[in-house]
Amino acid sequence: MAGARSALWSLTMTAVLVGLGLAVIAVSAVVAHLTVGLPIAVPISVALVGCLAFAVGLRLLHRGWWLTLLSVLPALFVLVGTVQLAPESVLRERGVAQQVTITDVQTVGKRHEFVLQGDTGRLDEPLVYRGSSPGYRVGQRLTVLVDPRGEVELADAQDVDPAGKRGMLVLGAAGWTLLALVGGWRGHVSRARGRAATAPPVVF
């Protein structure tokens, strides 16, 4: 009976953890969409808190650190997917495509601001790239998507891929689900062994 109760408890906690992971993804995605136009720190903070909550739950379920460390990879998919899906979806839905030419660039550290010239004049908003190798050059022609409401930064049309971000969320959810199942099983086995080791000897 004790073993059956333990198995049921492990199964229930595993299901709860899987549900938590899916809830984190759903809530983070909704918050990201609702806060479009606000500082990006808002959806990032919500997603980070959710990822941390899942990691803590997995640690309690499995009683080991290695699965918790492995959960970092799907957490990155969840974080990037939820934060970038909202603005890219906005640009895909209502963004206006414009053919532009890069006429100048201003660099501060790893932040590159490319000045854009369209068919009707210079764009008020630059193309921003954060990193060491932007891959753009002065004189280059490209297509950008501009949010007519000005809530989302313009972006290179080739980089706007909401479907890819949804795929990242699916990978993150699949990874968390797999780790929760493994953690639930190994945690159950570990607790069963602990009970067997502490059980009183049978006297005949």
TrEMBL record:
Membrane spanning stretches: 7-34, 40-58, 65-86, 167-185
Keywords: Membrane, Transmembrane, Transmembrane helix
Superkingdom of the source species: Bacteria
Protein name stated in the entry: DUF3592 domain-containing protein
Organism per entry: Micromonospora aurantiaca
